[in-house]
Design goal:
The complex is a heterodimer of chains A (193) and B (90). With 193 residues, chain A is of the alpha+beta class. Chain A has one domain. In chain A, 43% of the residues lie in helices and 16% in strands. In chain A, helix 2 packs antiparallel against helix 3. With 90 residues, chain B is an all-alpha fold. Chain B has one domain. In chain B, helix 2 runs parallel beside helix 4 and helix 3 runs antiparallel to helix 4. The longest helix of chain B has 21 residues. The radius of gyration of chain B is 13 Å and the shape is globular. Classes of the chains: A alpha+beta (193), B mainly alpha (90).
Chain lengths: 193, 90
């Protein structure tokens, strides 16, 4: 079943991306207007327990997505622009990151030291707890525009395949039907990971 | 066992130690210097098995990247492997 808020966030990310097009890579997609209070790495270092890390990171993602939505609605009111950008969802399993900085180096800063994609493109952060063996999983999802598929592919190779993975196998557009398929695919991928 | 299969607490404990002096190459270099001088001994709260899982993951990634991206600077991984060689004595 389609989660409305996820579809809205994918749309918001696509609208924001369209309106940021042409910005330099290092500045684009990390808008100062949406900048989270802390980076994922700072949260990782600050919090002692994995539960605290996951909750704090989830809050950051929620705040960014809300701020993006508010700003888009301030600009456009209820007449949101129609975007036809093609994209895929990327999943970062945050506790599988090793903070070696290789993806940041390989992608000219598209990813940061935590293998984190730019916050302009964040969609969701899901916390999953499995009991045996004890696992807390913090899954960040981000919407990746077609122009950056190759960069993400490189990051997946460099990350060693443990932290980063595509959350959807198809390249789909952002019409209502395909968003639904997109999100369902994301759900399957997260369950299977 | 794979890195991703370790309990999350164990992965956080390893990452806490490995980023004690920061993330990326600079953090790894400083930690290696500390390990070499004996100022940062092997962490006593992390089991040998957990350390080996991490070491094996880094080694695997190092070997893969050496083949796939031979021009890439992977000193950070070389430094981390050296840290584990010192700590595990292997």
């Amino acid at each position: 079943m389609l989660s409305d808020y996820l579809a809205d966030r994918i749309r918001d990310a696509a609208v924001w991306y369209n309106e940021s097009a042409g910005a330099p890579l290092t500045a684009g997609f990390r808008s100062s207007a949406l900048k989270p209070k802390y980076s994922f790495f700072e949260v990782f270092r600050m919090c002692k327990s994995v539960e605290s890390v996951a909750k704090y990171q989830a809050t950051l993602v929620g705040d960014v997505c809300l701020a993006r939505n508010v700003l888009i609605r301030d600009r456009h009111g209820s007449n949101l622009p129609i975007v036809e950008t093609i994209g895929r969802l990327l999943i970062l399993d945050t506790f599988s990151c090793t903070y070696d900085g290789l993806t940041a180096d390989s992608t000219s800063g598209f990813f940061d030291e935590s293998d984190c994609p730019p916050w302009d493109l964040w969609i969701d952060y899901e916390i999953r707890v499995d009991s045996s063996p004890r696992h807390v999983r913090g899954l960040l999802s981000a919407w990746i525009p077609q122009e950056y598929f190759a960069i993400v592919e490189e990051a997946i190779v460099v990350s060693g395949g443990e932290a980063l993975s595509w959350g959807s196998s198809e390249h789909v557009g952002l019409d209502a039907v395909s968003i639904s398929a997109f999100v369902e695919e994301l759900g399957r991928s997260v369950f299977a990971a | 066992m794979r890195w991703k299969s370790l309990p999350t607490d164990a992965r956080k404990a390893v990452n806490d130690v490995m980023t004690e002096f920061g993330s990326g190459p600079d953090g790894a270099r400083k930690l290696l210097e500390q390990a070499r001088s004996g100022a940062r001994p092997r962490p006593s709260t992390i089991s040998d098995d957990t350390l080996r899982v991490y070491r094996d993951f880094v080694q695997e990634k190092f070997d893969e990247l050496s083949k796939l991206r031979p021009d890439k600077n992977i000193d950070v991984m070389r430094d981390r492997l050296e840290i584990y060689r010192l700590w595990l004595g292997e």
